[in-house]
User: What shape does this take?
Amino acid sequence: MSHSPAAAASGRPEIDGAVFNPYAKDFIRDPHPAWQRLIRDFPLVWHKDLQMWLVNSHALCDEVLKDSRFTPNFRVWELAPPPKAEADKTDFDLAYEKGFFAVSTKDHLRLRRLTLPAFSRPVMAKIEAKIRDLVAECFDALGDAGRFDVYEAIASKLPVRAISRMVGVPTDREEFFHEFAVNIIKATRINISAREREAAVELTKPGFAYFKEQIAQRRTLPHPGEDFLGSLVGASDNGERLDDYEILSVVFALITAGSDTATDLHTFAIHGLLSNLKQYELLKRQPQLMENAIIELLRYGSFGKIPFFRFASEDIDFHGQTIRRGQAVGVNISCAWNDPAKYPDWNQLDLQRRLDGNLVFGAGAHFCIGTYLVRVQGGLMLSEFIRRYPEAELLDGTGELDYDYRHHNARRINRLVVRTNRVSLQQAA
Assistant: This one.
């Protein structure tokens, strides 16, 4: 197995799964030894098993994300499925083609301009109120529980419900929406088999049909509404409007950006704070640190196991290596968040850390569309957790921590048990 630049016959640095295997259980439990080796020895390297370039240092990840020659459009990928005839395209295909990741720079700017009303302060204020109610519901359901599993009680419920409320899905359709969201995400992944992707695309059909019907209904109204979906339907700029598939593409983007990330934020944030009780005490004393705390907890948790995908839209000479048109580039941002060149004390949780230039929500033209949703969810959840369980601790010091080792994208915590100490506090009162 070749692990050094000199060993690569092509002249490019190459590694394999012996150096970096994001599916290995040891890596999922503790990724830092692998990440630190990548940063130190292989900041830019070809991974023979993953069949992609890996970019691992903070500086190089930042550079790739801001370089428009590296596109998130997976149709550019050299191993992408062949183009379909128009008659064979599904709603997934048509929405993807109209979305932020696939359109030209000019059309991307147009989409951003026309979607601005849906992200306006009044619309976001209504969404925040709905999320606040959802957070309260999740905690109310726990009552005076002496302990609970954060994943089961909060992380598996709150994010998808928040997005469903945001896009106007009624509460009795939340499970239906959850299925749609899971398959939307899977259908965009290049690290699963073509058969799995095709199956996921097939399972998105009922969700797309539902939203097409909702959009059609809104278009018949004198005013389509002042909520998120209504703002997209009613958006207009010099006579330009969003068509149905452009609106669907925004829902699509919101799901891919805000669902998985928020799920993992809840478990890793609570684990991070309760594993660093001085920082937990600091946040209790200084709640104004919350916004910075969310970013730092995401950085510290670094729960992504698979890099962001970008694809070379042309042959690119990048730091002495030729990245051929169509090759995949894994922007290993979870690794980059722990780069000592950017964060000398990368392994410390510091809620007061200066986070200028961080890549936690990406960078460049494709800065994460779900940023607001994730930050609001995380802030409201942690505020409520602190209010209700100021003396909380991880059960037995570990929280009986366990991972979903098969998750396609994240180092997903699927068990984290918290002892609330709520009853003892009430008795003391």
In short: The chain has one domain: 5-428. Confidence is low (pLDDT under 50) at residues 1-9. The CA atoms of residues 100 and 366 lie 8 Å apart.
